[in-house]
Write the structure tokens for this entry.
Amino acid sequence: MFALGQLTFGWRDLLDILAVATLCYYGIRFVRGTRAMAALNGLLALLVLYAAAQFLGLFTLVWLLQNVFSSLFLVVVILFHEDIRQALSTMNFRLLFRRKKNERGELIKTLSSTALWLASRRIGAIIVIERNVELGDILEKGVQIDAVVTQDLLSTIFFPNTALHDGAVIIGHGDRIVAAGCVLPLANLARQHFGTRHRAAIGITEVSDAISIVVSEERGEVTLAQGGRLSNPLSQERLERILTNALSQ
């Protein structure tokens, strides 16, 4: 037992406080810079309005807001259903037992050099790297392949006017190409200057923890999508560094 003034608390209380503080920290870190943050600001405004209504004695408004807050859990689920789905999909017991893979350096170099090679020739491409969340439903809609990742194979798949050119290549947990010509879910973006290829590259990262490399045939640029966000155009060195950090987590 510990004492702080007239308050006494034990190790269970400390553990409880630590758990709540950790949950709040990662919750704020998760929503910071996302669309969910704007919704949280709206909920905070409702709380301020509720306090002001109680202070001013606006009983009808207080009753209305009390009914809203009584269903707050349902409101949060409705507002943040996409963000909650993404967060839950990344919770995987494999994270507890997964070993760091330093041997992925060769894969990273191959992907980076291939992406820049395709960009220099204005050949569009999407390469998705599967992580903890399995993409079985996406794989089933593509052409099944079981092959080593090489620049020759990737450049052949994405060569213009071929049958698999417009789809995405998915690299599975074994660091092998498991499918090509895959159709990805499209992100719903307000900025319309993104084409279908970039919306697809972002969309798959919104519903899973996968990473996608996208090559623009119009601009000859290489970008990377992760967690529903698209990077700025990348050099080969920068792309290798980002992939190394992401795949070692």
